[in-house]
Design a protein that fits this description.
The protein is of the alpha/beta class. It folds into four domains: 149 residues, DNA polymerase beta, N-terminal domain-like (DNA polymerase, domain 1, Orthogonal Bundle); 89 residues, Beta Polymerase, domain 2 (2-Layer Sandwich), CATH 3.30.460.10; 78 residues, 2-Layer Sandwich (Beta Polymerase, domain 3); 237 residues, TIM Barrel, CATH 3.20.20. It contains 24 helices and 16 strands. The strands form four sheets. The protein has a seven-stranded parallel beta sheet with strand order 10-11-12-13-14-15-16. A five-stranded mixed beta sheet has the order 2-4-7-6-5, with helices on both faces. It has a two-stranded antiparallel sheet with strand order 1-3. It binds 2'-deoxyguanosine-5'-triphosphate, calcium ion (CA) (2 copies) and zinc ion. 2'-deoxyguanosine-5'-triphosphate binds next to α11, α13 and α14.
Length: 581
């Protein structure tokens, strides 16, 4: 998280805790407003002058004092105090979809509920119905929310795990005794959620490395420690396993601990069928009885690719190691799938400026895209139905189109399109009429409301949007949030067939909170012959950095550059656009 992100999160947490504690609404709202204002900032808040801070809307003297305290100490005393006054089990209840601080406060003060177990007991006994506005429908929603939370608990989102793993690898890798270090496991495979972080290292001084790992500032608890493996729990509740392996066996260990387990089983079977044995120490020739004679040296062990090659395979990208046909697909002599790489991406086709709920101006967002080496950007602010996101009505949209087109003169190297992220209404109609849509260069159509809609109605709704002749891309097709809400339940195969027939692309929304389409659905869409867009749904400059998660998800769905809009050259992309105009 950036410094600004941490400050915003601190203000949000202050607001939530204050609300649970029953502080007056004025104070709570002021804290929320501070968070919103700071969220939109593009410069480092901790480096700003007091006068510049005070000049911003919704930032008063007490907010400035808290920011300065955070800049100096990395925390805020008030936050520490409030955390101590609210039971930890209570803030955890806020992770239940649809449950806000007001209701959590009522549960606490009226029913004495302090954790999830007590909440479930009160649902079972019926006591929960004593709360205001807690009718049968609300209780049902609450039950669904709890079930979803329990199913996802314990797994963290890749967007939280990857930066932590990268920082750890960089920190430990800087030790002179560390010869090689890398992360493995589900994180390397790019799964949307991670059970724990697995790190492998080769070192000339294993005990010093383990000591350093155990005593890092971020470690809350050492779960187990030895010469070759140490497991810790971080202060954020994330388990990290560090294993030390011999440098000349790094490749075989990396292969083994990257997994998946099912993929590993297939690889071992292949080794056996070729009279060999594969384990984390290498690929070995086996005797008549299948055993590895003592002192036998491995055929391959230093690099993953050596082992693959000795097994008659091309190197298999980690994101594809899930036992979904990859071993056959990567056999030497077969034309292997060439999955998309981040460097293939040259366009951002879904982003929001200050005109709706983004933090950058038109020029800022274009400059960001250009700095990333992109040739095309489509600016797609929200449509009028998204009032909470300051969606544009017809008059504002027409002016916005002109403003975007006017920017072309200032960025002659960029292909700049005036678009919209148009809301898909409940029946599949769009939030703007066709006359207005036809004036836009680029149309992304997305579902935002009624995400618990009946599956048949939801499928019909999305099919109608896909068939609309002016729609280029369906944005975040299910509306799900990873570890947050399941989103629309759709007959995906019907969507893929329609998308293919009508030449409408489907989005992989790269935001790690969304990753929507999910990996398995990307594979389905790819097989059905659909075009895919990978977009960052940019609201702030940092959001461009979410691209990596979208690319990992695309790779897990076996997407190649040839089926991805964002990998086309500028001319081809424009030609594709024009078939809808
Ligand atoms: P996670 O952490 O639940 O998101 O998933 P993974 O895949 O990272 O699983 P993890 O951390 O238990 O182990 C990392 C990899 O190491 C796993 O994908 C395969 C390999 N591995 C670990 N333990 C075993 C084992 O007992 N048997 C086999 N075959 N493979 C294992
Ligand atoms: Ca793991
Ligand atoms: Ca592990
Ligand atoms: Zn959206």
């Amino acid at each position: 998280m950036s410094t600004n992100g941490k400050v915003v999160a601190a203000f949000e947490e202050l607001a939530v805790l204050s609300e649970i504690l029953g502080e007056n609404a004025f104070k709570v709202n002021a804290l929320r407003r501070s968070a919103r204002t700071l969220e939109a900032l593009t410069s480092d808040v901790c480096a700003m002058e007091k006068s510049a801070l005070l000049a911003m809307d919704g930032i008063g003297a007490s907010t400035v004092a808290k920011i300065q305290e955070f800049a100096a100490s990395g925390t805020m005393q008030e936050l520490v105090d409030l955390r101590a006054r609210v039971p930890a089990g209570l803030t955890q209840l806020l992770q239940i979809q649809g449950l806000g601080p007001k209701t959590v406060r009522a549960m606490w003060t009226d029913l004495g509920i302090e954790n999830l177990a007590a909440l479930k007991a009160s649902i079972d006994s019926g006591a929960i119905a004593k709360l205001p506005r807690m009718g049968p429908k609300s209780v049902e929603n609450l039950k669904e929310g709890i079930a979803f939370l329990e199913q996802s608990r314990g797994r963290i989102r890749i967007g939280e795990a990857l930066p932590i793993a990268e920082a750890l690898v960089a920190e430990l890798g800087a030790l002179p005794s560390v010869q090689r270090i890398a992360y493995a496991g589900s994180l390397r495979r790019g799964r949307e959620t991670i059970g724990d972080i697995d790190v492998l290292a080769a070192s000339t001084d294993a005990s010093a490395l383990m000591e350093r790992f155990r005593t890092r500032e971020d470690v809350a608890k050492v779960l187990a420690t030895g010469e070759t493996k140490t497991s810790v729990l971080t202060k954020h509740g994330i388990q990290i396993d560090l294993r030390v392996v011999p440098l000349d066996r790094f490749g075989s260990a990396w292969l083994y601990f990257t997994g998946s387990t099912d993929h590993n089983i297939r690889l071992r079977e292949r080794a056996i069928s070729q009279g060999m044995r594969l384990n984390e120490y290498g690929l070995f020739p086996a005797g008549e009885d299948g055993s590895i004679a003592e002192g036998t040296l491995p055929v391959a062990s230093v690099e993953e690719a050596d082992i693959h090659a000795a097994l008659g395979l091309q190197w298999i990208p980690p994101t594809m190691r899930e036992d979904r046909g990859e071993i056959e697909a990567f056999a030497i002599g077969v034309e292997a799938p060439c999955v998309i790489q981040q460097s293939d991406i040259r366009a951002e086709l879904h982003c929001h400026t200050v005109a709706s709920d983004g933090g950058m101006t038109i020029d800022e967002i274009i400059a960001n895209a250009q700095a990333r080496g992109f040739h095309t950007i489509a600016i797609t602010d929200h449509s009028k139905g998204q009032a909470q996101a300051n969606g544009l009505d017809e008059t504002r949209l027409l002016a916005h189109i002109d403003a975007i087109h006017a920017a072309r003169a200032r960025f002659p190297a960029m292909q700049i399109w005036a678009g919209s992220e148009v809301d898909i209404l409940l029946d599949g109609a769009l939030d703007y009429d066709d006359k207005l849509l036809a004036k836009l260069d680029w149309v992304v159509a997305s579902p935002h409301a009624a995400l618990k809609q009946d599956p048949q109605l939801a499928t019909a709704r999305m099919l109608r949007a896909i068939r609309h002749p002016l729609v280029h891309v369906i944005g975040h097709p299910t509306g799900r949030i990873v570890n947050g809400r399941p989103g629309l339940e759709l007959a995906m195969d019907e969507l893929f067939a329609a998308a293919r027939e009508h030449n409408t692309a489907l989005e992989i929304n790269a935001q790690h909170l969304r990753l929507d389409l999910r990996d398995a659905d990307v594979r389905g869409a790819v097989n059905a012959g659909c075009m895919i867009a990978i977009d960052c749904d940019v609201h702030s400059s940092e959001d461009f950095g979410e691209l990596r998660y979208g690319v990992l998800t695309a790779q897990r769905g076996w997407l190649s550059a040839s089926q991805c809009l964002n990998a086309m050259d500028a001319k081809a992309l424009n030609a594709w656009r024009m078939q809808k105009r």
